[in-house]
User: What shape does this take?
Amino acid sequence: MSNNNVFKYIFSVVVVILIIGTMFFIVKNRSKNTDYSLDQTSTASNIQTDLRLAIAEFDTINPILSNNRNVQEISKIIYEPLITLNENYKMEYCLAEEIAKSDDLTYVIKLRKGVLWQDNTNFTSEDVKFTMDIIRNIGNTIYNDNLRYISDFEVIDSNTLKIYLSQPVAFFEYNLTFPIMCKNYYEGEEFATSSKTPIGTGPFKIAEISSNIIKLDRNSIYWNSQKEIMPTEININLYGSIGEVYSAFKNGEIDILSVKSSNIEQYIGTLGYKKIEYKSREYDFLSLNSASEKLSDPAVRRAISLVIDKNNIVNSCLGSGYVSSNFSLDMGCWLYTKDLNIGVDTEQANHLLASSGWERSNNSWIKQDSGKTDKLSISLTVNSSNEIRVRVAENIKEQLGNFGIPVAIQYLSADSYADAINNRNYEMILTGIKLGYSPNLNTFFGEGNIANYYNPEISEIMGIVSNTSDDNVLYEKYNRLYEIYLEDAPYIGLYRNTDIVIYNQGLVGNIKANSFNIYHNIEKWYRQ
Assistant: This one.
């Protein structure tokens, strides 16, 4: 190679290195302390660090007062709680630095030091007390249930407070996920009627509110230095209806949106965006009354659980927007570490009934007891005003009937249905619940549960998990609980709703939505 060619080669290499270095420098320094970790298709020249969100039928940006779903979702990046939850619903400290359980009814909360409100004043225990007071006094916020079992609270010092409960609550810390408001900011104001724009401690702050847009800027004094925040601003467009939001998304004016509609394609088509469907907290199941004569036998209960085809129920009675579900925690909880996967197994169901003394004859299951022939049949109670559950009940009747277990459906009015649950006056009942975020299973396995179910080992497990924060112990005990649940089948999980997040293909980032927060990892998102 000639000297001239060598020189050209070296010059070309140097130019390439300089270009790469310049691009890296631009990306690293577009914002102070920001590590973008760009997508492979991104370059420094095509990334945009402004995000675009939406609110339909806006009421107020105050998270304590708002009943708007979009506001509640967005509020999590402006205001912060004592405790937050990650993508797997696992508790993480936020404004609280430590929570110590003194006894079953007393908790001591140590607050994080050095946290500043977005007006540069200090966050203190008085702010937490102020927030709990206003939630109690207002009385109709979405956070009232969080404080249901709090009987009193007191400020110990500027970074410490005590909370007293009226009764023991397993995984109580999960109730401390309500947003904290600044006391001094509202000094002399009536919180419920104040026109002030609330300030927060979160990674983004409100810069401007107008009739059609709310502008957020990055919070330059945000306490969590480990979160290197990439977006420089967020524009929240305000729309009068969800239809307008869909149109704006279709036109590329919104980056990400949560939707309830399972047939979203008819509004925005199928091209130009991605979709994440995640399990919601609305869970329907069968409760089998363990105190009833026929269902007191775990073999009979488990046989029924192995006959019911949940996918058939979803496909035949529900359609899109639902997914089969086997257990209350299978919505993504960090403690649901063992997929129960309770599928149809009629052969095993036959074996269970036969081993328990039942014999199949003329498509019926019969048992001889003291010279008397007993026939296996079940009464199924359902709320007659709930059309979806009525369809499901009739589907279950058909499935069990084909297996030789006749089902008589009791169609009760809403009031009679509620009485049947409260008084445990049923054999098998189709019901549902909106689950909390915590892995607390007292509703299903605690004292006075609706299935009249008792297992001494389950009772022991419930006591242990209520009094430990050791992850290894929790994993071990929950996995054993699942094993017993499969064996005893006091409940049969059926299905749950799903929610959907849609986002434009130009939005880049690790997008992991769940029912608690659709904006996990937003600090690393950008557009291209």
Notes: Residues 261 and 321 are 8 Å apart (CA to CA). The domain at 279-498 is CATH 3.10.105.10 (Dipeptide-binding Protein; domain 3). The longest strand covers residues 273-288.
